[in-house]
Design goal:
The protein is built from 4 helices and 46 strands. By secondary structure, it is mainly β.
Length: 739
């Protein structure tokens, strides 16, 4: 019945779009572009297959990728459609140096060995917030995804030193068009049903006023039987009352209800992983979920002065997110207990007495847990002012960006837990699930109850200077950030206030010795704020924490050949982060802190998109990286050594099977450390994917199969007690109609 209701709701969602296709007013086939293409808007018409030639996030305004001193890889709409991607991580799986770091659904990734989320940027500006890493939300409103590798603090301030992800929104167009589709995703006997609609066009005959409406709805169960539901409705409008003025507004609502942390495996002290336990014997109950609500409002104005020599943009954003996390918290190390068939205790996952060579000796394997429902709310208000001045100065041509921002953030967090030992333990070999949250009615006590308020401002400048008709390009920039955070603990009514500030710099150089070939050097920085003081180990001297700073040096080459049918970026990089802190021993009752040395990630990467003929599209990602702490310990979840992934599609353009297309991909990920101390290793794995589709006029039908051989493998692990298996064989079926 639930699936039938889902299909009815999906049908109701799609009907208005189909009706509009039949009754839409007779707008011009292509309304005149009343506003010269904005420097803050991507022109997707230049894409060739899987290749793209322009980026927005790498400079805060649109720049040819060849003119950027740094690595930025774009996943365009064709890649997303060919992969039938349901998740952000699905779309990024063929980009080099990108990997999932935890549960496949929680949105946490690594780029160049450092953890990142996908919520950082939207259309080249910080969105403000993004609970749950952003990946819980649907990406139907977005046209493409940009991966900007390495630090970009001179443009975006504090963020992960590994890189940043920019989501490029779908924009209202001057030509009426629409797309509706329905799809299913089936794995291990469980199915997710999905419907999408995307309609855009001019409202008035002159094409000055335009709209776009995007909606999507998903409902069903992921492969281990846990809940999966998403809804999104987004609308955007633009108005160009004159050729030098553009106004726009955007509203978006999203809801997600996803069981995100389900894991089945763990590792013992011998470094063995419990792959003998079935993948779907997860330790999370069916009611466990991460429920998130998001309301997003944006408005802005863009004005051209002096015949476009100066473009000024003002953007205001409001973001309200609520999260209810219904879950168990699994106890820490030593909490997984092993018993033989007679019921005798053997040891914990930290004991060398536990051996997985003969799992038949185990009678039960238990894991202690606590109920821990949690609620969060975050509201952000952001105002951005960006100005681009284009001018010549002697033999040099300049594109100068001057910008600033004001931000305000209010948050609340409340968690309650059951008492230790009152919740029944979970047995991996004999799983018993509770159908209702806290069905035993256990008393819950408050563990976290806080309120927070943050205010910040920043300003920066970056100049793109070109010589000899863009044969040589110098990029230099700096940004100053200042933030104040006030927090109140409502459990003991105590308040703390922290003030942080820092400056980030960038210097880059691009040289183009030959047409379509560029060499580049990139020095860039970012930081992570550190607050308060600490007791240094072992002398107990009190010191002030200094901001953690990440610095990257990168050398590379780029190709844009054969009318952009070959687009490639390859680079060697070294990233160092300093001021890394770790907890030390307690001396005379005083907890101490150890200041660690630099953490270094270095290696090379290459990303290639090639369309040798119009029927064939290729995408290749290669990476070979070492990411280690100052003591030589491998970083968690970072593939060491060569990893690669390749995607190919062939389209039949003539003959009996004209409009048939098919393709496939292979992903090889090298071995990785399974926890922060690298006490065990996640083995290397390789998986195959395939797809086939057919276009019949405006109709499109497509079937995708992921993990074609149903390989059993460990995808990621943040710690010894949480090892996440990769998804089993998954089949996706999509039917779409364009109008």
């Amino acid at each position: 019945m639930r699936k039938i209701n889902t299909l009815l709701r999906v049908g109701l969602l799609l009907l208005p779009a189909l009706a509009s296709a039949q009754t839409a007013p007779q707008a011009p086939a292509s309304a005149p572009d009343m506003f010269v293409l904005s420097p803050f808007t991507i022109n997707t018409t230049q894409d060739k297959g899987y290749g793209t030639t322009n980026s927005l996030g790498a400079s805060r305004f649109t720049v040819p990728i060849q003119n950027i001193p740094g690595s930025v890889i774009t996943v365009n709409r064709e890649v997303i459609q060919d992969l039938a991607a349901f998740e952000f991580s699905d779309a990024l799986r063929f980009v080099s140096g990108v990997a999932i770091t935890s549960s496949p659904l929680n949105g946490q990734l690594t780029i160049r060995g450092q953890g990142v989320g996908v919520s950082a940027l939207r259309d080249g500006l910080p969105e403000g917030i993004g609970m749950g890493g952003g990946s819980f939300f649907d990406f139907a409103p977005y046209e493409r995804i940009e991966v900007i590798k390495g630090p970009s603090g001179s443009l975006y301030g504090s963020h992960s030193v590994g890189g940043i992800v920019n989501r490029v929104s779908k924009q209202p167009l001057g030509t009426f068009k629409g797309d509706v589709s329905t799809s299913t995703k089936t794995s291990n006997g469980h199915t997710i049903y999905r419907g999408d609609v995307d309609v855009t066009g001019p409202i008035d005959a002159a094409g000055k006023l335009r709209y776009r409406v995007v909606g999507a709805m998903s409902d069903g169960e992921i492969w281990n039987g846990r809940n999966y539901a998403r809804q999104v409705l987004a609308s955007s409008f633009s108005w160009a009352p004159s050729s030098d003025l553009l106004l726009w507004a955007r509203w978006e609502y999203q809801f997600a209800d996803i069981a995100n942390t389900a894991n089945a495996w763990f590792a013992n002290a011998r470094g063995q992983i419990s792959t003998f336990i079935p993948r779907d014997d997860v330790s999370d109950d069916p009611w466990e979920s991460m429920r998130l609500w998001k309301s997003y409002v944006e408005g802005g104005a863009e004005k051209r002065f002096f015949n476009g020599a100066l473009v000024s943009r003002l953007t205001a954003r409001y973001n309200d997110e609520d999260r209810n996390h219904y879950r168990y918290i699994k106890s820490a190390g030593g909490s997984i207990r092993f018993y033989d068939k007679a019921g005798a205790f053997i040891g914990t996952e930290s004991s060398t007495a536990v051996d997985f060579s003969d799992p038949g000796v185990f009678g039960s394997i238990t894991h202690a847990r606590q109920y821990a429902p949690e609620t969060q709310n975050q509201i952000s208000r952001n105002l951005y002012w960006d100005n681009i001045a284009t001018f010549d100065l002697g033999p040099t041509a300049h594109k100068l960006l001057v910008y600033g921002a004001l931000s305000d953030l209010n948050s609340g967090n409340r968690r309650v837990v059951s008492a230790v030992g009152t919740t029944p333990v979970f047995d991996y070999l004999h799983p018993v699930y509770n159908p209702v949250f806290n069905s035993q009615g256990l008393p819950l006590t408050v563990a976290v109850n806080t309120l927070g308020q943050g205010r910040s401002y920043n300003f920066g400048v970056q100049d793109n200077v070109s010589l000899f008709k863009e044969r040589v390009i110098l990029v230099a920039g700096a940004r100053r950030d200042h933030a104040r955070n006030d927090n109140r603990n409502l459990m003991n009514n105590t308040a703390t206030a922290n003030v942080g500030q820092d400056t980030s710099y960038k210097v880059g150089l691009v040289g183009k010795p030959l047409p379509g070939f560029a060499l580049f050097y990139n020095y860039s920085e970012t930081f992570n704020p550190q607050f308060g003081t600490y007791f240094r180990n072992p002398d107990l001297v009190v010191l002030t924490r200094e901001n953690q700073t990440g610095v990257m040096n990168e050398y590379g080459a780029k190709l844009d050949l054969f009318d952009s049918r070959l687009v490639a970026t390859a680079s060697w990089f070294e990233i160092n982060t300093n001021n890394n802190y770790s907890s030390g021993p307690t001396i005379n009752g005083t907890p101490t802190t150890i200041l660690l040395g630099d953490v270094t990630a270095k290696g090379w990467e290459a990303d290639i998109a090639y369309q040798p003929v119009s029927q064939l599209n290729l995408m290749l990602g290669l990476s070979d990286m070492n990411s280690k702490t100052a003591t030589g310990v491998r970083q968690n979840n970072v593939a060491q050594g060569l990893s690669y992934r390749a995607l190919a599609k062939y389209s039949v353009t003539s003959g009996r099977f004209r409009d048939l297309f098919f393709g496939g991909g292979y992903e090889y990920t090298n071995e990785r450390a399974g926890d922060a101390a690298a006490t065990f290793t996640l083995p290397a794995f390789g998986i195959w994917n395939a797809f086939v589709g057919y276009r019949l006029g405006d109709w499109r039908m497509q079937v995708n199969v992921e993990n074609l051989t149903d390989k059993v493998y460990a995808l990621s692990a943040p710690q010894r007690t949480l090892v996440f298996p990769g998804d089993p064989r998954t089949v996706k079926f999509t039917v779409g109609y364009r109008f």
